[in-house]
């Protein structure tokens, strides 16, 4: 295991939190790719606004993934952020590649955002139980943005 830049956490706690971070990193990478799939294939009324929103959402997801990957390194672990690792470790349902209607994308994305938000909230509690409130705070920050983007995507249905 590489050098840790955190003091006051046991090796066991660091291992547990690194595992939590990598699980949620895989989900975030998978969700980012789902958002891009929707961005590329969406059609219908309200297309341009939704298409542009999805680019912004993907950028925010990458920021959250970056926070998790950096925290893993700080804790002395290796981020598992490749597409191969995400495909193997993500707990999300695979995103359909043959969707086109905007309503179908809204529903499919909303479901996945809600699932990731739930997993992040469980990770907040688990990391704090392990004694790492800083990682709990990181998960809180990411989950707030996930919730907000779930709202942006879900509320878009009302505008179409």
UniProtKB/TrEMBL annotation:
GO terms, molecular function: ferric iron binding
Name of a matching Pfam family: Ferritin
Family annotation (InterPro entries): DPS_DNA-bd, Ferritin-like, Ferritin-like_SF, Ferritin_DPS_dom
Annotated Ferritin/DPS domain residues: 18-158
> Which protein family is it in?
Belongs to the Dps family.
What is the protein's given name? DNA starvation/stationary phase protection protein Dps
User: Which organism is the protein's source?
Assistant: Pelagovum pacificum
* Gene symbol of the encoding locus: dps
